[in-house]
Amino acid sequence: MIIDCHNHPDWYGYNIERYMDNMKRYNIDKTWLLSWECPDDEYSPTYKKQVPDASLPDGPISFRRCVRYAEQYPDQFILGYAPDPRRPDAIDKLDHAIRLYGVRVYGEIKLRMMYDNPDAIRLFRFCGEKGLPVTVHIDYEFATGSTYPRPNWWYGGGIDSFERAVKACPDTYFLGHAPGFWAHISGDDQYDKVAYPTGKVQPGGKVGEMLRKYRNLYCDISAGSGARAFSRDPEFAREFILEFQDRILYGRDYFDNVHQEVLGSLHLPDDVLAKIYSGNALKLVPLS
User: Fold this and answer.
1) Among candidates 132, 128, 140, 107, which has minimal Cα distance to 225?
2) Do 108 and 175 touch, CB atoms closer than 8 A?
3) What's the pTM?
4) Superfamily name with CATH number, domain 3-284
5) What parts of the chain have a pLDDT lower than 50?
6) What is the per-residue pLDDT for 142?
7) What is the pLDDT of residue 233?
């Protein structure tokens, strides 16, 4: 079985028909289908070409679209929903979605806020009570060469803010994701200078340190950030995966096959691949 732990409805022009064909093409049995609820002024206008609900209050990728997919193909999609913790009704909205639609994941949270602020911590602890893993997107602030409408697009406040949230919510499972997380697979200083660091991985990476320290932290390898973190230093990647094989989840955040190709190139044991492709996802979100 293969479970894609990170994707979105109507993302990059993939409507439901193209989506189902794509899952079949790459032998994906189930997908965690995640919303992205974010104020219109907190994401780059360049996204508006790819997101279906640009400028709408529940956009840029609404939970409504996730529900629509799951209603048509209930055996293929596991619902994720992440209302903005800064909204006073966030927990109520999430609780309603759990009871009414069977939401199983809180994700994706991708907001210009510190992930350890009190409102977020309160919501993350609620997720722990309800058994929902939390998928977080982290991006750093660094020079992009642009000045308008914002000089950069940071999310989450960096790895330290995320670590404080993980520590404050020991009964909640978190999945680290995106450039600001995977850059810390290495102990170098590239994480706040470029989106996709290159070169051999250096000792002392924060991701490894946190995985050893916090039993409630998992890794979502989706998007270019996860694929590049492994492909930049294949020898290190293989050892990393073997060490943390019980807490790494396969995901894509797109519709290509690069992550299966990267994993296939590392000559991993079949039992390890089985954990990454589905076993670890099923630990967090068992089949009902």
Assistant:
1) 140
2) no
3) 0.97
4) Metal-dependent hydrolases (3.20.20.140)
5) none
6) 86
7) 98
